[in-house]
């Protein structure tokens, strides 16, 4: 015979009421939070998966912020480069206008005045800052102004050659900056001629590449380098040409005639008023680099100073205009190539952005299935649990009043 004490009856009834009340509270919490799993004990397996999904979402959100930063930086750089191309195009138009032989000195000075304004505009674009105030073309030295004027008024690059890279997904990085030296300074320059530092006679002019394949072939696959020229004292005198290693190069035609053009390694030039056998060395500057700022500055100086009242001044001016146009075209091409490169980066950023968005949506859907409460089911459970708790409370109230004295 099993004996049940009053204490056991009370204890069992209270425990049952607490269990029902706890279940009711859990259901109420699910409805108020909208979550089926509010603590690991609600569903240990689901809670573990939800934790991993939360970590995945945190990772995706971090990369999405990086993607937004990369997108903003690349768009800003692309906009700056587009403005640079427009400015250089206007400078080119002014250069063509300045080459008009009928212009008076005052007209050339007026063109030079506008070129100064365009030069200042280009410097402002090259010194563009991002939202945090850093100069976007200064490499790693974002706090340093990319281009500054030196004591002579020339614009000089002040940054370094660093390139910032940002990770936009696991193992996926994208450059988000380009240094100004590679864009605005290291621009291929027109082939030019230079006279001796202390010439006894002569000048060189009309230098231009007429056969690039022949120029490259003259260096056996290496990079073209400077070519030196001399006029010997043979009868008739000849033009002698040598590459940077001292090896002779053929000249066509070989005979020297003052002011007459000749071709060496695909480069055309002419030497005027040279004294045969004087030992003067003339240089064809090959594969040089020219800052776009330097090109415009030289053009301005030439327009303001070159005297066209004699044939030497005319030849110098013509060379200035021709070389400036080549340098400006090279600068535009350099920037356009960088824009093309930027376009590839922006496409990569955009595709990564789309992938991350899809990943976020998919992960959220899985987490929602595991975590979100079914309101219809939860409300139905709440009603049932409330009814059961109420019935249990009423039953316990009646049982708790029973006594053995009621049987006497």
Sum this structure up briefly.
The protein contains 8 helices and 13 strands.
Characterize the structure shown.
With 408 residues, the chain is an alpha+beta fold. It folds into two domains: 35-188 and 293-372, Up-down Bundle (f41 fragment of flagellin, N-terminal domain), CATH 1.20.1330.10; 192-288. Helix content is 53%, strand content 13%. It contains eight helices and 13 strands. The protein has a five-stranded antiparallel beta sheet with strand order 5-13-7-8-9, with no helix packed on it. It has a four-stranded antiparallel beta sheet with strand order 6-12-11-10. Strands 1-2 form a two-stranded antiparallel sheet. Strand 3 (165-169) and strand 4 (172-175) form a beta hairpin. Helix 2 packs antiparallel against helix 3, helix 2 packs antiparallel against helix 7 and helix 6 runs antiparallel to helix 7 (311-371). The longest helix is centred in the C-terminal third of the chain and has 61 residues, at 311-371. It is elongated. The model has no long low-confidence stretch (mean pLDDT 82). Keywords: Bacterial flagellum, Cell projection, Cilium, Coiled coil, Flagellum, Secreted. One of its GO terms (biological process) is bacterial-type flagellum-dependent cell motility.
